[in-house]
């Protein structure tokens, strides 16, 4: 038995999703004429309480577009040192947007911590144009930024003339775990990039959520980055199906992650189980030999990510295989 817990990007379209894709009504999206993409964009914008949304091929493109919407060339972006936008997007903000990134200690943001690092305008300095927050926090083991902290960050950035971006790759998980409505999250951010191809199980796609004015610019940036798509309603149909069928079921992933975490002595909030070991690569190799695939996210850390394609039997197998390896390799 092979249990693939490397990432929730590994989900495959369900039979119902495939049927929805096959039946999708399509048009040319560069001309704004794909009715299924238009319906998805309207749906997602409404969920987050924003005017507009733009469907893009990937979460990385979504983030990179958003960063350029909120930070001018030679402007400064502030985020944590483990943020996806500066760790796993191959320097895109610097190369494509001419954006200077500055980081604070990795992990969940605090208002006090961000306030200490916000750089005001002044002689010889580049003022902070925007702050980026990850929800949930990937390297933080799927931890959820509280509504209180996010509200405080919104007040802080407004008071300092900075904008606020959300890398919302797993914001659906945060919503299900916390009970915070999506529009409550949306009201706090100038831009969001929300992913359809992780926990929601679509094969591809993310959505940039923003104002109508910024959406016009986002479409230009999408085209410039090679993301202009034609009859992509077949992809948007997967996203619409996922919104209807796969959001609330994320609670099942969270429950399975909690079971695995309990067996390993790890507290979880959503679908990610972080595991600290002396040698992450050796541990992942040993787990693979036992039929459990894990993601390596640092020299001493691996993660198990529970998703749509992992059932109770898979979790039972991981619970049987992983704790003895932790004990053996940590001795």
Write the topology of this structure.
Layout: E1 3-4, H1 15-22, H2 35-47, E2 52-56, H3 59-70, E3 76-80, H4 84-87, H5 92-97, E4 100-104, H6 111-117, E5 128-134, H7 147-159, E6 163-168, H8 171-178, H9 182-186, E7 191-195, E8 206-210, H10 212-224, H11 233-245, H12 250-264, E9 272-276, H13 280-289, E10 292-293, E11 295-298, E12 301-305, H14 312-330
Parallel strand pairs: 1-10, 3-4, 3-5, 5-6, 6-7
Antiparallel strand pairs: 2-8, 7-8, 9-12, 11-12
Give me some keywords for this one.
three-stranded antiparallel β-sheet; 331 residues; Aspartate Aminotransferase, domain 2; seven-stranded mixed β-sheet; alpha/beta; Aspartate Aminotransferase, domain 1
Sequence of strands across the biggest β-sheet: 2-8-7-6-5-3-4
SS-derived structural category: alpha/beta
The CATH first-level class of the largest domain comes to Alpha Beta
Q: How many individual β-strands?
A: 12
Listing every helix as H and every strand as E from the N terminus to the C terminus, the arrangement reads EHHEHEHHEHEHEHHEEHHHEHEEEH
**What are the segments in which pLDDT stays under 50 over at least 5 consecutive residues?**
none
Classified in CATH, the superfamily of the largest domain is Type I PLP-dependent aspartate aminotransferase-like (Major domain)
Strand content: 15-25%
Task: Determine the N-to-C terminus distance.
Answer: 27 Å
Radius of gyration: 20 Å
What is the number of independent domains? 2
State the major sheet.
Answer: 7 strands, mixed
State the helical fraction: 40-55%
Residue-averaged pLDDT, rounded?
Answer: 95
Number of helices: 14
CATH topology of the largest domain: Aspartate Aminotransferase, domain 2
């Amino acid at each position: 038995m092979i249990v693939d817990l490397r990432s929730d990007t590994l989900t495959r379209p369900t039979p119902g999703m495939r049927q929805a894709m096959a039946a999708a009504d399509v048009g040319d999206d560069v001309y704004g004429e794909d009715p299924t993409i238009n319906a998805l964009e309207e749906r997602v914008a409404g969920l987050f309480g924003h005017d507009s949304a733009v469907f893009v091929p990937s979460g990385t493109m979504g983030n990179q577009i958003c960063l350029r919407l909120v930070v001018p060339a030679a402007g400064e972006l502030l985020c944590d040192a483990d943020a996806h936008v500066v760790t796993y997007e191959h320097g895109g903000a610097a190369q494509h947007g001419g954006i200077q990134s500055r980081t604070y200690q990795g992990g969940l943001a605090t208002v006090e911590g961000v306030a200490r690092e916000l750089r005001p305008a002044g002689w010889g300095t580049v003022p902070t144009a925007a702050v980026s927050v990850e929800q949930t926090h990937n390297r933080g083991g799927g931890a959820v930024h509280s509504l209180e902290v996010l509200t405080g960050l919104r007040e802080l950035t407004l008071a300092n003339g900075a904008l606020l971006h959300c890398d919302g790759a797993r914001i659906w998980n945060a919503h299900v775990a916390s009970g915070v409505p999506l529009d409550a999250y949306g009201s706090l951010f100038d831009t969001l990039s929300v992913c359809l191809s992780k926990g929601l199980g679509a094969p591809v796609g993310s959505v940039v959520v923003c104002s109508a004015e910024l959406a016009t610019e986002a479409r230009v940036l999408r085209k410039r980055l090679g993301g202009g798509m034609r009859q992509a309603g077949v992809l948007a149909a997967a996203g619409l199906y996922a919104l209807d069928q796969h959001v609330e079921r994320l609670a099942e992933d969270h429950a399975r992650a909690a079971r695995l975490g309990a067996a390993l002595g790890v507290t979880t909030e959503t679908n990610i189980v972080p595991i600290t070991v002396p040698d992450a690569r050796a541990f992942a190799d040993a787990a693979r030999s036992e039929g459990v695939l894990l993601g390596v996210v640092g020299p001493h850390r691996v993660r198990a990510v529970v998703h749509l394609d992992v059932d109770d039997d898979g979790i039972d197998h991981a619970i049987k295989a992983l704790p003895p390896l932790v004990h053996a390799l940590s001795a």
